[in-house]
TrEMBL record:
Keywords: 2Fe-2S, Iron, Iron-sulfur, Metal-binding, Oxidoreductase. The lineage of its organism: Bacteria, Bacillati, Actinomycetota, Actinomycetes, Micrococcales. It comes from Enteractinococcus helveticum. The keyword Ligase does not apply. It comes from the Bacteria. This is (Fe-S)-binding protein.
Length: 432
């Protein structure tokens, strides 16, 4: 399925860039070499980074947070990427408002904390005050309020909440494809009941690399030998087919086949969806979702594959249900397990700086030190994130060299190719 973004919206946004630069970007897109990494400017050029913030992060649905991060009315988080800052607020009606974090007086940033609880939103510069819906209700000196307040409400962004996950879109006309994609993944995620979870820990990691390198790294396991903690429970054969399995991984391959068969039987017994659905570059909101087996006891990301929390999520009947893994283009991936869930969100800060936000969720009645040990819960992915940071920073430094040339993707890196295909398609659609 394909979808074309409204042309008038595109032209009004791309007009901020010179026609010469747009022509240069168009040539780069046209030269895209299938099956190979992108040319260096896609990762190093500051104006092309600006293009990405407009064409991708300004037009498409992004994962912003989970309901567990703002569980009560008045709770909020701020989400910053590129030139944008958003206030994601739990309103009094139980819904979510997404407001641009820019005062309508003289543009000051309103909420300066990453999270908190608030009633009305008060700008710290001149005390302009807004309701949780973004309406201007006070402008410090009543005698000067001789203008139409309704014309100076905070700008709003689109939002969707699906199975406890909050998505935002800045486009005037968001891609309608999201409605169908949410119907695909909701049955997989819903049994974990994320609305009945709480945040055990959140890690913000600034990686010194372009956001596309961060996403490419996540989309393959060719490098997974560099993740010893993860490989205690994560099969190193992920992404391989039988004809690609090297001799030293044959035993792990056989183990994974047996584990997948056991998991399939359990899912069928409990009526849980488990089939792989992979449409990473064939629709506007690219998705891959499946329930995959874990090694060892098959319960969680631990040294022996055993559970890391004693509390099951939602109404799940069994701890040994592997991981429900989901990828969404362009900025997120997720692992939903029986005992906890992990969300990953990627937010570009600069051409070579990217925020990776990882959030661990546990059942809302789980007690730290009793039902779970926080260090053990987060250990595998904290280590994996740090290792990935080092790898993508190596890639950024290498690509910045004048001698860098495009290299071929391996067959096991097909999801990287799909991500790049998705990116090129969306970028071309955005061109005026």
């Amino acid at each position: 399925m394909s979808e074309t973004i409204n042309a008038s919206t595109v032209r009004s946004k791309t007009s901020r860039m010179s026609s010469d630069k747009l022509a240069e970007i168009e040539q780069l897109l046209a030269r895209r070499r299938e099956g190979f990494s992108l040319e260096a400017p896609f990762y190093t050029d500051t104006q092309l980074f600006q293009f990405d913030t407009e064409a991708i992060f300004g037009q498409h649905w992004l994962f912003a947070a989970s309901i567990a991060e703002l569980p009560e009315p008045g709770d909020y988080v701020t989400v910053d990427y590129g030139p944008y800052s958003l206030i994601v607020l739990h309103n009094d009606d139980g819904g979510i408002n997404v407001l641009h974090n820019v005062c309508r007086h003289r543009g000051a940033r309103i909420m300066n904390q990453s999270s908190g609880t608030t009633g009305n939103l008060v700008c710290g510069y001149h005390s302009w005050t807004y309701s949780p819906e973004g309406e201007l209700i006070y402008a410090s000196i009543p005698g000067e309020m001789d203008f139409n307040k309704q014309c100076f409400a905070l700008r709003r962004a689109h939002s969707r909440v699906v199975a406890g996950l909050i998505f935002v879109c800045l486009a005037e006309e968001p891609p309608e494809d999201f409605d169908h994609v949410s119907q695909i993944f909701e049955p997989y995620v819903a049994p974990h009941e994320l609305t009945k979870t709480k945040v055990a820990y959140q890690q913000d990691l600034i990686e010194g690399a372009n956001w596309k390198l961060v996403m490419e790294n996540n989309r393959e396991c060719y490098h997974c030998d560099g993740h010893p903690e993860l490989l205690c429970s994560y099969f190193p054969t992920y992404g391989l087919t039988e004809d690609l399995v090297p001799p030293h991984l044959e035993e792990a391959w056989e183990r994974s086949i047996q584990a997948e068969d056991v998991l399939r039987q359990r899912c069928q017994r409990y009526g849980l969806p488990y089939e792989e659905i992979e449409e990473l570059d064939t629709r506007v909101v690219g998705i891959r979702i499946a329930r995959d087996a874990l090694d060892g006891e098959g319960e969680s990301f631990s040294v022996d594959g055993r559970r890391l929390s004693k509390k099951l999520l939602g109404d799940l009947p069994d701890f040994r249900l592997g991981r429900c893994s989901m990828h969404l283009q362009p900025n997120s991936w997720f692992h939903f397990l029986s005992d906890h869930a992990i969300t990953f969100a990627v937010f570009p800060i600069g051409v070579d700086r990217t925020l990776v936000r990882t959030t661990w969720l546990v059942a809302d009645d789980a007690v730290e030190g009793v039902d779970y040990d926080l260090q053990q819960l987060t250990h595998t992915w904290e280590q994996t994130n740090t290792q990935d940071q080092e790898l993508v920073e190596l890639a950024q430094r290498g690509i910045s060299s004048p001698v860098y040339e495009q290299g071929p993707y391996m067959r096991s890196e097909y999801q990287v190719e799909a991500f790049i295909n998705w990116y090129i398609q969306r970028a071309r659609e955005y061109m005026p």
